[in-house]
Amino acid sequence: MDNKTFKKITVIGLGLIGSSICRALKKYRITNKIVGYDKNQQVLEKVKNLNIVDSISSNLNDSVLDSDIVFICTPVGSIPIIAKDLQNSLKNGSILTDTGSVKGSICDFFRTNHFEGVNVIPSHPVAGTEKSGPLHGFHELFIGRWCIFTPMANVSQQAINDLKNIWTIFGSKVEIMDPTHHDLVLAITSHLPHLISFNIVGLANDIEKIKESDVVKYSAGGFRDFTRIASSNPIMWRDVFLNNKEAVIEVLGRFIEDLSALQKAIRWEDGDFLEEKFINTRDIRNKIFSAGQGEFEDEKLNKIKKS
Amino acid sequence: MDNKTFKKITVIGLGLIGSSICRALKKYRITNKIVGYDKNQQVLEKVKNLNIVDSISSNLNDSVLDSDIVFICTPVGSIPIIAKDLQNSLKNGSILTDTGSVKGSICDFFRTNHFEGVNVIPSHPVAGTEKSGPLHGFHELFIGRWCIFTPMANVSQQAINDLKNIWTIFGSKVEIMDPTHHDLVLAITSHLPHLISFNIVGLANDIEKIKESDVVKYSAGGFRDFTRIASSNPIMWRDVFLNNKEAVIEVLGRFIEDLSALQKAIRWEDGDFLEEKFINTRDIRNKIFSAGQGEFEDEKLNKIKKS
To answer: pTM of the entire structure?
Structure first.
């Protein structure tokens, strides 16, 4: 693998993802200099104290001067605004990338705002925790996770390889995908689960007859699985839903339709319908997660006994 | 603590919960004899091989003769049927209990079917895994979990204490609750989360444009949190929804209402509404789980710096 060392890399937006990228860049010595920018002065101070960048900058355009790679790690809604601001400051031949959870709207922006001489590779590391801010980042965040690239048409293969190399060093697997397909896949695997989690946690608080302490005590019955992702960054998620409107509304509409069918079956005590649905679901789950996951002990045991 | 040893305890239904109870009874030497009954001969054979009971029985009424305590650990729908069958076989002064996830319908049954001389203590250990069957049980399953009792009016305090003592030895905390309140609390903390999980896993499979492999690859974005509980026992869950119809329909109705409001906000791009909802949700979650959970590192660090 070509362990190319870059002269300067800039990370814009130093929250959970941005600060984790800084840590990983430093850990694996990817570049001679890491510059961190954040519009929030308190965040910059924290990052300085953490010693995860070589210098901080409170001037957006200055921060990217002569940078080989610029990572924009802010909420999806602000990525085009920041990119627009940077349009004339980026180094010729450099890579501009981002880490937003929506790719269609980002690619649309770059199609209508041409960045001459810059390799624009919108990307999405499918990684994160429910915590926000630079103190919660860690360099191992990307290990074993996928990073999806949706490169613009005119980027060089070398640029794609360089960025892929970095994510691979971080421990991620890289896949190139069409941005519309990305947004649909993520709508079902990430955006809808988050929306549902936000919704159920809010609902638990609204039901007047139930004390908060009851929700906490009995959350082991299933609820707890939902609360973790419901405490994710509100601004980030607001932007995700606004920017992936079509796909989210499509999957959400179908989700509500299916849920209404289950509701009807419960109301009419249609046990056969429920049982069939749940059996199918279990089969899907088992099929999905069977590969080497140590499941099906019953069957394995039976096979051993028979042989 | 009164470490009373019982002469004989019968466990009916030897799945995940029943077999875990057998294991815990044996581990803590609660009784001189554990008898296991299951209508499924294969399950009985497995339990025999596992050596977690002192004897197996394929005759329901024989299995409970002279038992001090009978645990019914079958799906909720079959509990009244089994109890009815046992009505004339139970020992005078013994305890009859169950482990069903719904308590209202069970208590209704026992109110209209009086069990003369038997201490009926419907109960619900809020514990479980997504796996089913006797091979997946383990004696530690109940440690740190709550077991909710909804005792019938005429049971002796001694019987409640005896059963409470057993669950405490198993590592659980016991709470006595009104069955209607139990069913509402569990509807939101367990039944609705399961229904939603079944629904979203089914939906992921239905969306034609998405390959199964995409769902697996990118499930770290949130989806994976839902799949675990969606592979729970279909029959058990069918019975839960049929037997807790009113409470589940109530919380499900409100869940769909709230979700429709979020859908509308996304459609109309009402970012303020979304942001406010998500901030509230995060606050609720943090409030709920803050007590000694090592959260709020930012704030703690700030306090330390200021002091």
So the answer is: 0.85
